[in-house]
Fold:
Amino acid sequence: MSETPGTRSRLQRLSELSPAAALGLLAGVLLLGNAAVQEPGFFIDQAIGGLVYGMILVMISLGLALVLGLMGVVNFAHGALFMLGGYFTYAAMASYGLPFWVALLIAPVGAGVVGIVMEVIVLRRLYGKNPIIGLLATFGLTLMISEGVRFVWGASAVQPDKPAFLTGGTDLLVTQVGTYRLFTVVVSAVSVAAVYYLITNTDLGLTVRAGVQDGEMTEFVGVNLPIRFTAMFFLGSAIAGLGGALRVVEQGMDPGVGQDLVLLAFVVVVIGGVGSIFGSVVAGLFVGWAQFLVPAVLSALAITTGISSIDVTGIGVLVPFLVMIVVLLVRPRGLFGEEGLLE
Amino acid sequence: MSGHADEQASGGGPGGGGSGGDRSGGGSGSWFSSGTVGQPSLFERYRIPLGLLVLVVVLRPAVASDVLLGYDAIASKMLIMMLFVAAFNLLFGYTGLLSFGHAMFLGFGLYIPAILVQNGLWVLPAGGNVTFFAGVVLAVAAVAVYSYLLGKLIVGMGEIYFALLTLAFAQALYFIVLRDWWELTGGSNGLSRGTLPDFVEQTRGAISIEAFGLSVDWYWVVGVVFLLGMLALWQLIRSPFGRSAIAVRENEQLARAMGIDTTRYKIWAVTFSGVFSALAGVLLAIQNTGVAIENLNVFTSGDTVLMAVLGGISYFFGPIAGAFTWLFVEDFLTDFELWQFPLSEVTLVTLDLGDVLAYWQFFLGALFVVVVLTAPEEGIWGYVRSIPGWLRDRVGGVTR
Structure:
């Protein structure tokens, strides 16, 4: 079901824009250009910030989209797995004194194992049932995980020290960017690309997708489907855990992060289109950028026009939701979604 | 469907063999079961209003007794939350639409009268009684328009989309209130000063209503509003509207084939649910003598879902049972330090549970998962309902 026509036809579809959409794009480019000219330093800062944030979002929503598109389960607990990844990293680094690299390995594996336990005990009973029940059950799991985290690590935010070799800044002409942020972007880009490749271009991905389309027939030709679904779940959880590990070092983590971010991940999946992995990658980056660049654009516009009331403070957090509302009004199935899925 | 006033077209609780009908389907296939019901007696027909009345009369003395919580201030909060969760369940249990952002509707009732009373408007003085009622009317009108438009926008996209979109809209509204661009909502501090109209009197933490020279205890005012609200909900559910909504939930395609405009019914269900939720919000703002932004966040919405499902969404009394259990457990367990068995005088076993029970939500979460996996529509109330039948089967004489 996740199989969408190749990249070329996607590009073709994008080229069939309506005049209104083309006009919107043009306006967007102009506004961005204006922001880049007015405050280049601030603009680049925000662009990098949006990229980092967008990559983290992609890492969460990729797993969410995987589980949703492949197994038809809305995994509300996915944000909790992300959070667990962060806390595992913190525990490994701060409590056990392990180096960052080891923690970066422990976090995804730990989150993945928790994900497997969840899948085997709870979610396996939900395949093929009403997706609402899956949403409710995983919501209960979220509650358990956040309370568990609160029990073990307390309610206040935690943050391990940054590894020494990543603390500095990197000069990018007009501004300086923390090396760690660039590191985050690289790691997440590599892992997202790897997962994407695994699903679209390997035997494992092929059999899983076949199983989604016709489970009975796939098992008939000798594919062990349950174990493959579990493997996919591990993959989705692990990549979320890795995202958590990357974020905890930079931003810290508290027990509420899971629910906040899973919500944004849902927004991303809805914008990208349910069932499309490619869509969730694009939408994740888009939402990340939108959240950071809209304030920059508005601030630049306020300077250009001289109307200071345009520069609304804190509009950023609202942007993902506004984008989603617009997307749903214009194109209800999302940017790259298939029609009829989960409807 | 004339005169049928059962809690819902469900044939007896689970295991309630005896005289009740058996439940068809359940589990993976159809969501909810249906059964056949004969012509009910007068008592049968009005047992829900009677039950509500008994609840309002009994609740406060019950929770105030030493066996339960030992203080009565929580009773009125329980009633308010019951009304709120019941309004939520009109949408989830009866129409089949899961709203994951129901706190936003509550927020309309919380904020609009409070803002109006605090600031006054034009001929309406700040703190005036008329201002407050104008605020209530405005809140209800605003929430009706908002939820109608929201429903129109998102109801056609399927259940999961509905859940996620309500969540997203609620979050957007939360951020707007938090940012407080127009300096009305108090941002993260909420509203605490001057939000109450003149007729609300506070004496040493207890609230009473002064009107026409009379002083009425706040609990009874809540009780009356609760009764009126719940009766309206009950009437709504047993009216042709409610029956059509149930038909939409049971089998949307069939309902459409039979000539029910399913989208329209869903939109109106959202609207009604929003209005009743806002009503609960108005009460909650007075109950808390102010507005806290925590009542608008995603956790409040989540708790609403938890309460309804724990209580049992198939039943009219399910949300009531769920809200009661939730608030009771919250209050009971967080104050619970030592667990002594069998009695404190002749203690055999003493466990210090205070540390563990502070994390009571973990166990409620676990219970919730079990409920969802085993019997998502039944909950606590379904279990309670099944006890008489179970007893009758085990203890009663064999008549066959």
User: Anything to note?
Assistant: Residues 1-6 of chain A have pLDDT under 50 and may be disordered. The first strand of chain A starts at residue 169 and ends at 172. Residues 40-71 of chain A form the longest helix (32 residues). Strands of chain A lie at 169-172, 175-178.
